[in-house]
Amino acid sequence: MNIVIKNIGKKGKGVFAGKNFRKGKTILKIKHNNLLSEKEASSVSYHYQNHMSYVGSNKYSIMKSPERYINHSCDPNSYFKHANIYNEQLISIKPIKKGQEITCDYTIDSNPADIWMMKCRCGSKNCRKIIKPGFKKLKGKIQKGYIKYAPPWNKI
Ligand SMILES: [Zn+2]
């Protein structure tokens, strides 16, 4: 079993490693078969907007379980690798031990044209406190560390 969903109090649910992962391993394969246009995406309920993933080419997908429960961290241990608008994979960017929470940085594959904002309490040393879209607005050092994980639309 690659992952386990657990309740983690105030943050709701989280996704945890069901086994050890070495760096660069595929944790989840995600298929999007219900793509929404920008207009459609902006007209769904607030609940669904909170679980929206940008997949490129002005298309969005409502995330399903378990990927919708992956929490943000400013010191993430995974990222979403977008192969195309229909397929993405969750890949480990460092070794992850069984039982550890699997997190990703929501800014990496965000659509810079989107407007949302979220307070972060990830507790990591480099926590940015406020998370929003705009990969290219991240500080140089952070951006440099992330560039190999950025989807085509955020590559510089
Ligand atoms: Zn943070």
How would you describe this structure to a colleague?
The protein has one domain: SET domain (Beta-clip-like), CATH 2.170.270.10. Helices cover about 10% and strands about 30% of the residues. The chain has three helices and twelve strands. It has helices spanning about 40-45, 45-50, 140-145; strands at about 5, 15, 25-30, 35, 50-55, 60, 70, 80, 85-90, 105, 120, 130. Strand 8 and strand 9 form a beta hairpin. It is globular. It starts with a strand and ends in a 10-residue tail after the last helix. The model has no long low-confidence stretch (mean pLDDT about 95). Bound molecules: zinc ion. Zinc ion binds near residues 74, 120, 122, 124 and 128.
Blueprint of the fold:
Elements: E1 3-7, E2 13-17, E3 26-31, E4 35-37, H1 38-43, H2 46-49, E5 52-56, E6 59-62, E7 71-72, E8 78-82, E9 87-92, E10 103-104, E11 118-119, E12 130-131, H3 140-146
Parallel strand pairs: 7-10
Antiparallel strand pairs: 1-2, 3-9, 4-6, 5-6, 8-9, 11-12
